[in-house]
């Protein structure tokens, strides 16, 4: 694999190998300087905290030189295209690019321009894909449940329509053979394409949570949303917010994930986000290990 643009149609064995390597990093295995002398650029055209910083740390731990690209202070403000920006930085000898962009397919378009030996990782494009988030979510589920993904009952709750995280999670869950995937959201936030093929789709949160092992709640993406898709934040929380009372319908051992940033009191209550079932900070920790595994596989 030259680039990591999506988890759709990625072989199960490749995903499992990456997860195993990431688990080794998480367990504290000695880290080789696999990227010694390699320059990696975080090319972000959208804001980010968790993804960008964890890629920075992952590349540094592997010995890479890390370059930060800030769109707000770059020549893109003068009209330079993303393609010209990419070619310019690549011409400096940069071999690795971690790219986030607001447009669907933008990272794949840059990958098509890349010279041999240059590798791109999609750090989120539009609502299409966020493959390393999908991988770190799978690693977190494996750790938290101690079970194979195929045997887990997974409820994905919230703004699925606008969520690249949901799409990559679904790609990974299917690849790993998950047999019970529930998708729950208001009708206005459910995609009408093939995104949810094979899922049990419902607008009833209680039904989605019933006996679930994993609850993956999604951020309400107001920046991508048209007016009127939800009546109000209060109404959304009343119908689809994950609270302790609601979570009691899930399995006793159920865990809760959230990709962040969290809209507290909207998609999740403080008591759940900070409670004993939350694995939100474990997701953040696993992000570094997963991104180390990805960068090593592509550039090592």
What would you note in describing this structure?
By secondary structure, the chain is an alpha/beta fold. Helix content is 37%, strand content 15%. It is built from eleven helices and nine strands. It has a five-stranded parallel beta sheet. Helix 5 packs across helix 11. The longest helix is centred in the C-terminal third of the chain and has 20 residues, at 280-299. The radius of gyration is 19 Å and the shape is globular. The two termini are 12 Å apart. 45% of the residues are buried.
Please state the structural category: alpha/beta
Distance between the termini: 12 Å
Unreliable stretches covering 5 or more consecutive residues? none
Report the sheet with the most strands, covering strand number, pairing sense and barrel closure.
Answer: 5 strands, parallel
- The residue-averaged pLDDT reads 95
**Strand content range:** 15-25%
Count the E strands: 9
Helix content: 25-40%
- Rg over CA atoms, rounded to whole Å, is 19 Å
Could you give the order of the helices and strands?
A: HEHEHEHEHEHEEHEHHEHH
Number of helices: 11
Major sheet strand order:
7-6-5-8-9
Overall geometry: globular
């Amino acid at each position: 694999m030259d680039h990591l643009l999506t988890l759709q149609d990625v072989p199960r064995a490749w995903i499992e190998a990456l997860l195993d390597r990431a688990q080794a990093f998480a367990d504290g295995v000695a880290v080789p300087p696999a990227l010694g002398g390699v320059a990696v650029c975080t090319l972000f055209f959208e804001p980010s905290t968790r993804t960008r910083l964890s890629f920075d740390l992952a590349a540094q731990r592997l010995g890479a030189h890390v370059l930060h690209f800030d769109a707000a202070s770059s020549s893109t403000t003068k009209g330079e295209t993303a393609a010209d920006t990419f070619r310019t930085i690549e011409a400096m000898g940069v071999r690795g690019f971690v790219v986030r962009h607001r447009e669907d397919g933008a990272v794949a378009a840059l990958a098509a321009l890349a010279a041999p030996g240059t590798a791109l990782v999609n750090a989120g494009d539009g609502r299409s894909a966020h493959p390393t988030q999908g991988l770190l979510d799978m690693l977190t589920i494996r750790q938290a449940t101690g079970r194979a993904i195929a045997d887990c009952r997974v409820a994905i709750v919230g703004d699925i329509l606008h969520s690249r995280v949901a799409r990559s999670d679904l790609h990974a869950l299917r690849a790993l053979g998950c047999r019970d995937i529930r998708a729950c959201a208001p009708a206005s936030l459910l995609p009408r394409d093939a995104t949810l093929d094979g899922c049990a789709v419902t607008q009833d949160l209680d039904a989605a949570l019933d006996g679930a092992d994993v609850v993956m709640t999604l951020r309400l993406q107001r920046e991508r949303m048209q007016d009127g898709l939800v009546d109000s934040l209060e109404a959304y929380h009343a119908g689809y917010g994950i609270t302790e009372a609601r979570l009691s319908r899930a399995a006793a051992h159920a865990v809760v994930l959230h990709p962040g940033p969290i809209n507290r009191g909207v998609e999740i209550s403080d008591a759940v986000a900070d409670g004993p079932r939350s694995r939100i900070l474990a997701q953040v920790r696993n992000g570094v290990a997963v991104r180390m595994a990805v960068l090593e596989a592509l550039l090592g």
